[in-house]
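Internal tracking record. Fields below are filled automatically when a chain is submitted to the structure queue. Please do not edit lines marked as system-generated. If the sequence contains nonstandard residues, flag them in the REMARKS field before resubmitting.
Queue: standard
Priority: normal
Entity type: single polypeptide chain
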Amino acid sequence: MSEESTIFHQKIKKAFDLEHRKKINFNISRYNAVVPLGKQQYTDINGAREKAKNIKWNAIEDLDKQLEKFELHATRRGTKVVWAETTEDALDEILKIARRKNCSTIVKSKSMVTEEIHLNKFLEQHNIESIETDLGEYIQQLDNEPPYHIVTPAMHKSKEDVAKLFEEKLGTPASLTPSELTLVARQKLREKYLQAQIGITGANFIIADTGSIAITENEGNGRLTCAWPKTHIVIVGIEKVIPSINDLNLFWPLLSTYGTGQKVTVYNSIVSGPKQTDETDGPEEMYIILLDNGRTNILANTTSRESLYCIRCGACLNACPVYKNIGGHAYGTTYSGPIGSVITPHLKQMDEWKHLSYASSLCGNCTEVCAVKINLHELLLENRHEAVEQKNYTVAERFTWKIWKRSMLKRSFMNAGSGSLKGWFINRFLKQWTNKRSNLDFPQKSFNQLWQERNKQ
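SYSTEM-GENERATED OUTPUT FOLLOWS
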């Protein structure tokens, strides 16, 4: 068992807390209530999903040309485009920019890519303050925790948890309502916007034919992060490219419907470079860092390539019975849930992270709800197959499955022993299965034995 797998199983034990699961199920139930309402705006929701998948297929199959086209149009508007192959490349570039600007404070909008490269920790090590401006991310930063969910970072916290956290970290009364807590955060963050020399954002989409980035959000902090500081840095995965600005009228509503149940999110921005000579607002400089960081490993894999279509709506997390039981932090990686289990072994090392591909019931619900129809449960199976092909298994694992295979292929083994004997053996020795479930109760006779007896009669 790998070190990451061991940590994963330890975190699962902590996640099986009834209060924790109660909070998660409550928040996901609210999501389940609104998403069907958002879908009502479509006359053919499956057709829209199919069209979106085809557009992403076209973009990913032609990724090199799409990215070169994006760079050409972006640089024409004065944006500096940087190619970062690894986490270290991206962090080094950000640090160089920060030092050139004598930067002491950075404001940052919600971005999973910056979580992927652990940007805040890196900046802190170099004495640069980095402040999360999304409310959920700000709460998580105060609590020194990573995001719990791709879309809703503090999903696992109740309003009482947040009030207690603000009391400990900001000195506010523990009796504050959610609205009052939001106003406290707003006041604190607005002060940081005035101090910051650099604003850092991600991008939901990068648009090849205009060289623009598209950001969708519900709070407006992304717009402030883009426009207020004198320097704007965008860091985005190379898979986020779409061919045309006209594709946004399909992707923005799909992302909001499957992400939050809205017809469209509150703020949708297209940013096409720094402030131009005839403009009064916006940053003086804009940098876009295009991050690979293992994505070309997925691109090279013709089967798993489909996972690059993901638009990070988070629907698969909300649908997954495993995620709903163990929660986001148990995965131990930036991208949790089914999509995280698919891509993480390719972004990192298969031998260390293959266990995530087994954190699935293979019920197919993730595939059913995916906004761009990624066959997630099939890709999880593909990961398992690749792990076996690469011999990423222990001797004990191989021996266990060999015995299981022989037993399953020989009827006399399947019929051997009474139901009580089988139950005693399983419940005694397979504690990983039974320690969180009721004991297994086998019938005294197998179906095959009952069939033989009936035919003899």
